[in-house]
Structure formats: C-alpha cells, structure tokens
Specification:
By secondary structure, the protein is mainly alpha-helical. 56% of the residues lie in helices and 9% in strands. Strand 1 and strand 2 form a beta hairpin. Helix 1 runs antiparallel to helix 2.
C-alpha cells in the first residue's frame, strides 16, 4: 500500500478518535461528579440537563485511537524497513 494512503488512513483514525474523545468529554467527563442515582445531572448555572449516556463515546474513542496507533506503526515500519531489490 502506498505511503500516502497510509497517511490518509492515519489522519482519518486520528480525526475520528479526537471527535469521539471530545464528545466523551463534553457529554460525560465534565459532569462525572454531578450524576445522581438515576444517571441524570442538572447544572442550574449552565442550564444544562445531561443524561449519563456519555460514556458510550469513550469506547469508539479508544477503538479509533488504537487503530490510529496501529496505522502509525505500519507507516513507521514501512519507512524504516530495508528496501528489497
């Protein structure tokens, strides 16, 4: 596979990982201490009601991050491998 395709794939995985990580942070991590026993959080200062469905975004962020690491490893392995005649 050509290096340009590998770079595009790496950037795709990184972008998806960052998008999911941002959603995880905005929908869960910021409010993690506020959730009650029903999995709801209301912040009167921000006027926000958040349900505890935010941790769902952590799984795709982790998966896409691992795929990005794998793509980076393949890209670096190809660049450092000896050339075959």
């Amino acid at each position: 596979m050509r290096p340009s395709v590998r770079i595009v794939r790496l950037l795709l995985w990184l972008g998806l990982s960052l998008a999911c990580a941002l959603a995880f942070h905005e929908r869960y991590w910021r409010w993690r201490d506020c959730f009650n026993e029903l999995g709801r959080c209301y912040d009167p200062q921000a006027g926000v009601m958040v349900e505890q469905a935010g941790p769902i975004w952590g799984t795709p962020a982790l998966v896409f991050g691992l795929l990005a690491l794998r793509s980076l490893r393949h890209l670096l392995r190809q660049r450092t491998a000896p050339h075959q005649p």
